Amino acid sequence: MLSVSNLTKAYNGHTVLTVPELDLSPGIHYFRGGNGSGKTTFFRTVAGLLPFFGTITLNSQYEISRDPVAYRMRVNYAEAEPLYPDFLTARDLAGFVAQAKQSPAGQVEMLAEMLGVNKFWKQTTGTFSSGMLKKLSLLLALLGKPALVLLDEPLTTLDVATAATLFEFIRQLTTSQNVSFLLTSHQDVSLTGLSITNVWQVGDGVIVPAT
Predict the structure, then answer these.
(1) Domain that holds residue 164
(2) At 190, is the pLDDT very low, low, confident or very high (cuts 50, 70, 90)?
(3) Counting CB atoms within 10 angstroms of each CB, which of 64, 91, 104, 122 has the fewest?
(4) pTM (predicted TM-score)
């Protein structure tokens, strides 16, 4: 599903992430590690938001540097602490992303209702609580027809009912549409009821199988 080779990411000459080789099979992968371990840097790199050295290939076909548009059409990402231009509404952002991701008809409305974003659809994001921002970020990350969705701390500030709805939808996507997910969380992912394919430990910019 996702192959990473010879990846290095550095800031101001200081290497913060090193992934010599990582092959992720289809499914749900959980990345655990403390603050500053490199989880978010890895997710942002895989999402195509950060420059890096190395190769990242999706489904043995789309290499992020060689096929940037096709790759990004198939990889979606939700930030741990999302921020958006405070003058845009939830509907504005959903419409923009839906167009960019070529979302199927009715998908935006379905997700907005499922996650409760329709309750603040016309409000500007500058008025949003952290929970509202989280719900919007999850909606945006599920738009289009992704092959891979990265959710960084999806449980943070999310209410219990919405979390349960989200994880049921993730189960549906993995089984019926073969969508894979990468998750991070400071909370116990076993409580989500998701069938985790692999657990990975991230520390000091290195990723290894959890023991």
Answers:
(1) 1-74+146-210
(2) confident
(3) 122
(4) 0.96
